[in-house]
Amino acid sequence: MALVLSNIFRFFVLILFQGLVLNQVALLNGYMQPLLYVMAIILLPFELPLWVVLFISLFTGLSIDLFSSTLGMHMSACLVLAMVRGFTLKLLSPREGYEYGLQPRIEDMGLAWFLSYTGILIFAHHFWLFFIELFRFSEVWRTLGRILLSSVFTFVLIVLTQYLFYNKRR
After folding, report:
1. What domain range is 25 assigned to?
2. How confident is residue 69, by pLDDT bands cut at 50, 70 and 90?
3. Is 149 within the bounds of a domain?
4. Which of 3, 125, 143, 168 has the least CB density, counted as fewest CB within 10 Å?
């Protein structure tokens, strides 16, 4: 029950923080945009079935779309993230599978695993989001720059958050 409550609390905190604070931050003329809300999906427990992850992703994206007035863009990117999450978990799965009770965090899975897992998911989410946002091939290099810079910025924020809030050895 504590795991469910912590995930619900994290979801609401991340959505509110993204909607009220981080949506106002755009560095380098919008090339670096922090999208920390993806952490709500990235840190979901391993044991959740795909349909639950898809439902949570849909609700997460819809919540951000309501804050951003971009109905559908974040929702579709979150659904892509949920689908890629399933494939990534299978790709990075240990031989014995994931132990029950472990979570996709640095503390439980190790830094190398977490960096690979998070990097793939953030890049997939940002790639989808920024390309459907612009949807022009004439701006492909600008869009790729936004994808890379925003992915790195979000990635660094998520890793810092892991060390600040989820590290028991503090």
Report:
1. 2-165
2. confident
3. yes
4. 168
CATH of the domain at 100: 1.10.1760
Q: Label residues 19-43 b or e (16+ Cβ within 10 Å = b).
A: beebbeeeeeeeebbbbbbbbbbbb
pLDDT at residue 169 greater than cutoff 60: no
| Model pTM score | 0.90
Please report, as a single letter, which amino acid is at residue 79.
L
Cα 32 from chain centroid?
A: 15
> Tokens 């709500």 identify what position?
40
- Give me the number of domains the chain comprises: 1
Nearest to 33 by CA among 138, 143, 111: 143
Q: How far apart are CA 158 and CA 119, in angstroms?
A: 10
Residue 160 placed within a domain? yes
Please check whether residue 170 lies inside any domain of the structure.
no
- Residue-wise pLDDT for 106-132, tens only, equals 988 999 999 999 999 999 999 999 988
Residues with Cβ within 8 Å of 77's Cβ and at least 6 positions away in sequence, in order, are 61, 125, 126, 128, 129, 132
Has residue 120 been placed in a domain? yes
Query: Tokens 């755009």 map to which residue?
Result: 26
